[in-house]
Design brief:
Number of helices: 6
Distance between the termini: 64 Å
Order of helices and strands: HHEHHHEEH
Largest sheet: 3 strands, mixed
Number of domains: 2
Length: about 160
């Protein structure tokens, strides 16, 4: 109800929101909206598609919503499965490991999506490969914390 009150402060009438008279979310409205979006996506060319993210879609971006999406959780699981292999191989073979991850995401029905002004759109495979490589590099051990406070620095033994 608090959310509804906050929206009303922006001048949005109750009739424009998917709520029942009792203030509950009207789930049929949301299901119908998703069905319409999916039909519109099928008609639009790939570059302009507005996509409703699914459970296997990897969302590109930052924030808790992106981090906790089911597709991103699955993506991080795949990265952990292939992490040792990725670190142990040559640069050329790293591209093959990245391709394996990309294909596993696609085979599971997932896509790599980025959010723009018009909603979510699918990115091309090159950008998806860049995301996977970047994610592998982020798994590496971070540099040690260096404090700006000199009192916290200890003299190394024998120095």
């Amino acid at each position: 109800m608090e959310c509804l009150d906050n929206l009303l402060t922006f001048g949005i009438p109750k009739s424009a929101l998917p709520f029942t008279a009792s203030g509950d979310v009207d789930r049929s409205y949301i299901r119908d909206w998703i069905r319409i979006q999916v039909k519109n996506e099928a008609k639009a060319p790939l570059s302009s598609r507005v996509i409703v993210p699914g459970n296997r879609d990897v969302l590109m971006g930052r924030g808790k919503r992106v981090l906790e999406s089911p597709g991103n959780v699955h993506f991080r699981y795949l990265l952990q499965l292939h992490r040792n292999q990725y670190e142990a191989v040559s640069k050329f073979e790293k591209t093959l490991v990245i391709e394996v991850i990309l294909q596993k995401i696609k085979e599971s029905g997932g896509r790599f999506l980025t959010q723009g002004d018009d909603g979510w759109t699918e990115v091309d495979d090159d950008l998806a490969r860049n995301k996977i490589g970047h994610a592998f590099r982020n798994l590496r051990t971070p540099p040690p914390f260096i404090s700006r406070n000199p009192a916290l620095h200890k003299e190394a033994p024998g120095a």
